[in-house]
Amino acid sequence: MAARRPFRFRKLLRDLHRDVGYLAAFLVVAYAISGIAVNHVADWNPNYRFEVEERTFPPFTPASREEAAARLVELLDLPGPPREVFRSTPTDVRLFYEGWTVTADTAAGHAVVERPHERFVLYDLNWLHLNKGKGAWTWVADLFALALLFLGLSGPFLLKGKHGLAGRGKWLVLAGVLVPLLFLALRRLG
Amino acid sequence: MTSSPRIAASLVLVLLLATPLVLAADKVFGEGVGKAPLVKVSELLEHPEKWVDKPVRVEGLVTGVCKKRGCWMEIAGDKEFQSIRFKVQDGVMVFPAEVVGHRAEVEGTFVKVVLSKEQALARAKHHAEEHGEEFDPSSVEGPVTFYMIRGTGAVVHF
After folding, report:
1. Distance (Å) from the C-alpha of residue B66 to the closest C-alpha of chain A?
2. Higher per-residue confidence, A45 vs A92
3. Which of A21, A136, B88, B107 can pair with B151 through a Cys bridge, CB separation 3.0 to 4.6 Å?
4. Per-domain residue ranges of chain A
């Protein structure tokens, strides 16, 4: 009869950390990419890029919203009447088509055709990361958060010795704690 | 085994058939609408003091949206040349670019915003940057007062 092997807590932790890591790998990468993208929302739109085309036409002063729309369709050779029309002033006109708009200053004879496009892949990653889907995705995201919690808590205890928590690990963990604490302290002092 | 490809094909078909239904649906943001009284934009702009700090609901065409954060929508009024801004806290609701040109109902508190000249300058500068326009400081002559709706919820009809 073979001798019973002793229970090894650290081995179990390593095995669990490895398998949870495999499961979480895709979302860790996806959320990290999306995180960088939305961190810089003040500088760009992380979900859309806007295709802009400037056009000119002979200036005119429309007597009505309907006339403004009809003249712009003709002068800019637009594909038929717009779905909606809005004037913010008698000469500032906006035409709304399905998924794109035309903003025209009829007094200046200047128009901007604008088409928003979802950013390739990034739009979908943000959709997941920012939980736009709500519903069932909230539960998946909660499970992912629990997986991250486990990875974060188990990570420091995977190794023994000089590379473990008792060795240089404690200094790296401390650095990881101190950097955000420093920012929080500065926030309170500032 | 032949059933797996058939099941996969059926699932794809169901998804394709369901897509227009999903796209055509109303999209609810935040707490949605329905609790506050429906008020015309013209009424709000012509008699603002009557409505300041009160919950209101308005409906109209979405004529603009915050291009960076999706944190506001501009709603056209019932009368020409009128519109009102519907502003939400960053990240609480994020309005996608597709809402522009669609009808929406929005709900929140009607507020009066008074800006000093410095604040008005900063706002005008931000507006110019957001729209890729040249900023002209002389366009702001003094303190500015305007009205908007601080949003709690919205429904956009796609």
Report:
1. 10
2. A92
3. B88
4. 9-45+120-158, 48-118, 160-190
Q: Do A86 and B94 touch (CB under 8 A)?
A: no
Q: Is residue B5 part of a domain?
A: no
Interval A20-36: pLDDT, tens: 999 999 999 999 999 99
Domains: count for chain B: 1
Please tell me which of the candidates B83, B96, B100 has its beta carbon nearest to residue A47: B96
Backbone angles phi, psi at B7, to 5 degrees: -65, -45
> Average model confidence (pLDDT) for chain A?
94
pLDDT at B7: 64
Alpha-carbon gap, residue B102 to B98, rounded angstroms: 8
| Inside any domain, residue B103 | yes
Amino acid at A45: N
Pairing type for strands B83-87 and B144-157 reads parallel
For residue range A117-139, what is the model confidence (pLDDT) as tens digits?
999 999 999 999 999 888 999 99
Cβ-Cβ contacts under 8 Å, A63 against chain B = none
Quick one: pLDDT band at residue A96, thresholds 50, 70, 90?
very high
* Contact criterion met (CB < 8 Å) for B101 and A96: yes
Q: How far apart are CA B80 and CA B63, in angstroms?
A: 12
Contact assignment for A97 to B101 by CB distance below 8 Å: yes
Q: Do B101 and A98 make contact, defined as CB atoms within 8 angstroms?
A: yes
- For residue B63, with 0-12 CB atoms within 10 Å meaning exposed, 13-18 middle and 19 or more buried, which class applies? buried
Chain B nearest CA to A113, separation (Å)? 14
Host domain of residue B146 = 26-157
State the Cα–Cα distance between residues B94 and B96, nearest whole angstrom. 6
Using the beta-carbon criterion (under 8 Å), do B76 and A86 form an inter-chain contact?
Answer: yes
* Chain A residues in contact with B81 (beta carbon < 8 A): 87-90
The CATH number of the domain where B71 resides is what?
Answer: 2.40.50.140
Pick the closest to residue B157 from B78, B92, B96, B104 (CA basis).
B104
User: What was the ipTM of the complex prediction?
Assistant: 0.76
pLDDT at site B69: 84
Establish if B37 belongs to a structural domain: yes
Asked if residue B72 belongs to a domain, the reply is: yes
